[in-house]
């Protein structure tokens, strides 16, 4: 099981040390979702991390910084994926992921990407009213290794995601909306370690 931490769309207090804590605790990647952030601010943010840490970052906008900082790559929001079906048209940086909201679209297009977000799997925490509409069990088993479950992911339902055959999940609201984000990160990391032990048994 791998975890991806998606940033809040707004800069938050203690965000940098919390992102570093997530990386230290074994989170697979950090997705920087800041559509309204000026490129200069994103550069300033990324400058706070090491070159090694940059290799775990993916940006959802300001794609030029992906090349400048040699990041893991870029993420295409659904609207951009639909506008540019040829991923080579978007950026010289690797296009590692995109977003889907329907299983049929995921199964038809995810092969072009390292992985694809699909959701909401559960009712969203960060987007009130954004209701669950994806059943992970209905996804072609051969494609589940490319699937990242998103939407309402918490430490309490991570086992269900794992048991569905999906091995990656993205979290956002469970961390950034928590009273103690550091504690939320620790609980998630501990749960992933437990699931890895089960997987290896």
Structural write-up:
Strand 5 (95-100), helix 6 (103-109) and strand 6 (115-118) form a beta-alpha-beta unit. This protein has 9 helices and 8 strands. It has an 8-stranded parallel barrel. With 201 residues, it is of the alpha/beta class. Helix content is 35%, strand content 16%. The protein has helices at 15-24, 39-46, 51-54, 64-68, 78-83, 103-109, 158-163, 173-176, 181-200, and strands at residues 2-6, 29-32, 57-59, 73-76, 95-100, 115-118, 147-149, 168-171.
Task: Summarize this structure briefly.
The chain is an alpha/beta fold. It has helices at residues 15-24, 39-46, 51-54, 64-68, 78-83, 103-109, 158-163, 173-176, 181-200; strands at 2-6, 29-32, 57-59, 73-76, 95-100, 115-118, 147-149, 168-171.
Map the helices and strands.
Layout lengths: L1 E5 L8 H10 L4 E4 L6 H8 L4 H4 L2 E3 L4 H5 L4 E4 L1 H6 L11 E6 L2 H7 L5 E4 L28 E3 L8 H6 L4 E4 L1 H4 L4 H20 L1
Parallel strand pairs: 1-2, 1-8, 2-3, 3-4, 4-5, 5-6, 6-7, 7-8
Q: Helical segment tally? A: 9
Q: Low-confidence parts, pLDDT < 50 over ≥5 residues?
A: none
**Roughly how much helix do the residues carry, as a percent range?**
25-40%
Number of strands: 8
Biggest sheet strand line-up = 1-2-3-4-5-6-7-8
User: What structural category do the secondary elements indicate?
Assistant: alpha/beta
Q: Say what oligomer this is.
A: single chain
DSSP strand content: 15-25%
> Biggest sheet, open or closed, and with what strands and sense?
8 strands, parallel, barrel
């Amino acid at each position: 099981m791998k975890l991806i931490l998606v940033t809040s769309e707004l800069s938050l207090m203690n965000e940098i040390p919390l992102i570093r804590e997530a990386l230290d605790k074994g989170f697979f990647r950090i997705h920087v979702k800041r559509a309204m952030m000026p490129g200069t601010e994103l550069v300033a943010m990324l400058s706070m991390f090491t070159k090694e840490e940059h290799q775990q970052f993916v940006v959802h906008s300001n794609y030029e910084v992906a090349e400048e900082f040699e990041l893991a790559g870029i993420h295409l929001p659904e609207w951009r994926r639909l506008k540019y079906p040829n991923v080579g048209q978007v950026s010289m940086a690797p296009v590692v992921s995109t977003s889907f909201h329907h299983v049929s679209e995921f199964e038809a297009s995810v092969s072009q990407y390292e992985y694809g977000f699909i959701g909401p799997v559960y009712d969203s925490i960060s987007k009130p009213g954004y209701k669950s509409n994806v059943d992970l069990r209905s996804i072609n088993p051969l494609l589940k290794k490319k699937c990242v479950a998103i939407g309402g992911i918490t430490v309490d339902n991570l086992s269900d995601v794992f048991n569905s055959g999906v091995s990656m999940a993205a979290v956002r609201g469970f961390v950034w909306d928590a009273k103690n984000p550091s504690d939320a990160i620790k609980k998630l990391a501990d749960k992933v370690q437990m699931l890895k032990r089960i997987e290896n048994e």
